[in-house]
Amino acid sequence: MSDQKSNFYSGLQQNLEQLREQGLYKPERVLASRQGSEVVSEDGRTLINMCANNYLGLSGQEWVAQASIDATEKYGYGLSSVRFICGTQTVHKQLEQAISKFLGTEDTILYAAAFDANGGVFEPLFDENDAIISDALNHASIIDGIRLCKAARFRYAHNDMADLEQQLQAAADKRHKIIVTDGVFSMDGTIAQLDQIVALADKYGALVMIDECHASGFMGKTGRGTHEHHNVVGKIDIITGTLGKALGGAMGGFTSGRKEVIEMLRQKSRPYLFSNTLAPSIAGASLAVLERLSSSTELRDRLHENTAYFRKEIERLGFTIKPGTHPVVPVMLFDAPVAQKFAARMYELGVLLSGFFYPVVPMGQARVRVQLSAAHTREQLDTVLKAFEQAGRELGLLKN
């Protein structure tokens, strides 16, 4: 091996070892079971799962798996192609129509992942004559998508409407302006102020785009999302989201909006044009999920009951959490190694969750992120709370 190659690999090894020494190395927890409120680790331990995006508890449901099997039997394993060549089946068109109906939009386009949806939405629609005005804490996929576009970039302080207005004023000379925000910010559980954002967009002639990955299926009275939560259905120009969280939990993303927008994405969005079609098994199962969610709010209601209970009890124990009503509950530990030690101790106590620290969250804002599910029972939540109390006292985090 040449000296140059040897230096490259030794440098990687040193960096990895440094992460381990600092307590910042992120281990993967290997599961030997279905996703659910309880999971089985590869060593056979049963753990209460508090870190999945399985908000409605659908990932491991038998009827969802069966819908996937039924779609596979009818449509096969995959298309071996992209959509515009020979990779579209009726199940894909049916799912796009169902998503549009669920969200209250005109049309929808499917992607292999939500990261692709955000990565492929800006470049076909905006150029150097336009402006993209983005929340400072938007998801990495939005940031990467904006980088691929030649439009001028403006950033406003997180959820700060006064700063947003200043950025809109700064972009006044641009042809088209679009405000881009997560509907719900996944690290904090913060809900974007869409009603105020829409009002500012109307005032300055801007479009509005929201990423609904942590909202579709359970935010709003009937689970349609953040735009329903804030009573602005029909006033959002572009919605991106995922099928890989509340809506079944496999993978796949989408962009939804006006027909002209979606048609242009079909013609020019690179992740759509150059990635294989979403597997029919996922499309079929996702279609079944949307049909179920359109007929009942039972799972959505149960999720919010669990969320309210856990938020109240974790604060009662003395932990600091980010305020809110969303099922993402950041338990603030502030120090990165402490967050990793806490997550490791909770794992030993039979609870699966993960520590988050810089650069995923701002420096000094390390935490463990709890995510509630409709599948969690009250007994499971009480067991988790007891584990939090024990680990908190052992690590000196609780004073009372």
Structural features:
400 residues, alpha/beta, seven-stranded mixed beta sheet, three-stranded mixed beta sheet, 15 helices
Annotation, overall tally of beta strands: 15
- The multimeric state of the shown protein is single chain
Q: What is the radius of gyration? A: 22 Å
Q: Which percent range describes the beta-strand content?
A: 15-25%
Percent helix range: 40-55%
Structural class: alpha/beta
H and E string: HEEHHHEHEHEHEEEHEHEEHHHHEHEEEH
- Poorly predicted tracts of residues: none
- The rough form would be described as globular
The largest sheet has its strands arranged as 3-11-10-9-6-4-5
Q: What is the number of helical segments per DSSP (H or I, 4+ residues)?
A: 15
Describe the structure in your own words.
With 400 residues, the protein is an alpha/beta fold. Helix content is 42%, strand content 16%. It is built from 15 helices and 15 strands. It has helices at 3-21, 62-75, 83-86, 90-103, 114-119, 140-147, 161-170, 194-204, 226-229, 259-268, 270-273, 280-293, 298-316, 336-348, 378-394, and strands at residues 38-40, 46-49, 107-111, 131-135, 152-156, 177-182, 184-185, 190-191, 207-211, 238-242, 253-257, 328-334, 351-352, 355-356, 366-371. The strands form four sheets. A seven-stranded mixed sheet has the order 3-11-10-9-6-4-5, sandwiched between helices. A hairpin with a 4-residue loop joins strand 7 and strand 8 (190-191). The chain is globular and about 55 Å long. The protein starts with a helix and ends in a 6-residue tail after the last helix. The model has no long low-confidence stretch (mean pLDDT 95).
